[in-house]
Amino acid sequence: MKLGIIGLSGAGKTTVFEALTGATGGESAKMEDRIGTITVPDERVDILSKIYSPQKTIFAKVEYFIPAKKQGKEKDSSQWTGVRDCDALIYVLRNFKQYGTEGADPGQDIATLDSELMVNDFMVVEKRLERLALDAKRGKKPNPEEIALLKEALEHLEEEKPLRSFPHIADSPLLKGYAFLSAKSVLALLNNEDEDSEMPEIAGFSMAEEGESSTGGSGIEGMVIRGKLEQELSQMTDEEAEDFLSEFNITASATDRVIIKSYSLLGLISFFTVGEDEVRAWTIKKETEALNAADVIHSDIKQGFIRAEVMAYGDLMEAGSYNEAKKKGRARLEGKTYLVEDGDIINFRFNV
Ligand SMILES: Nc1nc2c(ncn2[C@@H]2O[C@H](COP(=O)(O)OP(=O)(O)OP(=O)(O)O)[C@@H](O)[C@H]2O)c(=O)[nH]1
Ligand SMILES: [Mg+2]
């Protein structure tokens, strides 16, 4: 699972990437694609780990990708290559003053970014429709449903509406292969001044406190981050960070909230396996059946699947221990098609 970080020049992409991933290297790394894998903070895993004292505790992970800065001719041809196979996008929007530049206008920047993605998608659709028309002339039978969807997509793009606003297009298995840029979910990060934790007023976005999110126009979720502050924070020792946090009146790092938010933005949830050897969070898409959740752990478990013993995290907490909860009948036996829920603790029973 990978999130692509994009934004206008100087918006703070590198700063935010480094704040999220703890990576360093800044300016010198500009010309290369960068990828950072980070752990998704989850209090439930911390608590389960305390209960079981396992040898290993493993959290869920997501990747952040920041494309290399492209110049000249390269800019048009390969600019979006790496971004296309990201599962969702993060827009970094400048909301701080910068010497020698115009005042910040994040609302306008959203429109600019959307427009770049839409132009790109438009070209892809147009080319594909031409190709399909040619195929039809040569006697090949294209899928009429795909053509209808592509034509509809073209209309929306002509009207400058991003495809993410149309779930039947954005989520269509028929169009999946095109990996349309404007169909991807977006988390907008308003990159504020160090002293400023307010959500700026943008048409379609409502006000929110730092870290809180709000859904804006064209289906984008927005959150405030103070990129530079967070980047500095990410490079500090715990003691240094503590002083810093109180000085700037922040309770906890906003990056944790951004990471958690981007996880749910991807439509991801976690189920847990617990034991004395390992407590682990496993990542699945919402609405995943137990059989496919088993497959995430190991194909053998899927192959030999008998049943899944499932207990909700909340039920375990309420009872105090797994056995206590089990006595109360909170461990359910579920079959292959059970839809796994966020926070399910699962013990798969299987034959090898
Ligand atoms: N005040 C303030 N300055 C910031 C913030 N984030 C970034 N900057 C500054 O803005 C400048 C650009 O930041 P970068 O992170 O390099 O921006 P970028 O989007 O990666 O820029 P390019 O890769 O050149 O497109 C740097 O001088 C940063 O120190 C912020 O949250 N507040
Ligand atoms: Mg940069």
3D architecture notes:
This protein has 2 domains: 2-265, Rossmann fold; 287-350, Roll (Ubiquitin-like (UB roll)). It is 39% helix and 22% strand. It has helices at 13-21, 43-52, 72-77, 81-84, 106-137, 144-158, 167-170, 227-234, 238-247, 254-265, 290-297, 299-303, 313-319, 322-327, and strands at residues 2-7, 34-39, 56-58, 61-66, 88-95, 186-192, 213-215, 221-225, 268-273, 278-285, 305-312, 332-334, 344-350. The strands form 3 sheets. It has a 7-stranded mixed sheet, with helices on both faces. It has a 3-stranded mixed sheet with strand order 3-10-9, sandwiched between helices. β9 (268-273) and β10 (278-285) form a beta hairpin. α1 packs parallel to α8 (227-234) and α5 (106-137) packs antiparallel against α6. The chain is flat. Mean pLDDT is 89; it is low at 207-211. The site of guanosine-5'-triphosphate has 19 residues, from α1, β6 and α8.
Give a brief outline of the structure.
The two termini are 29 Å apart. Helix content is 39%, strand content 22%.
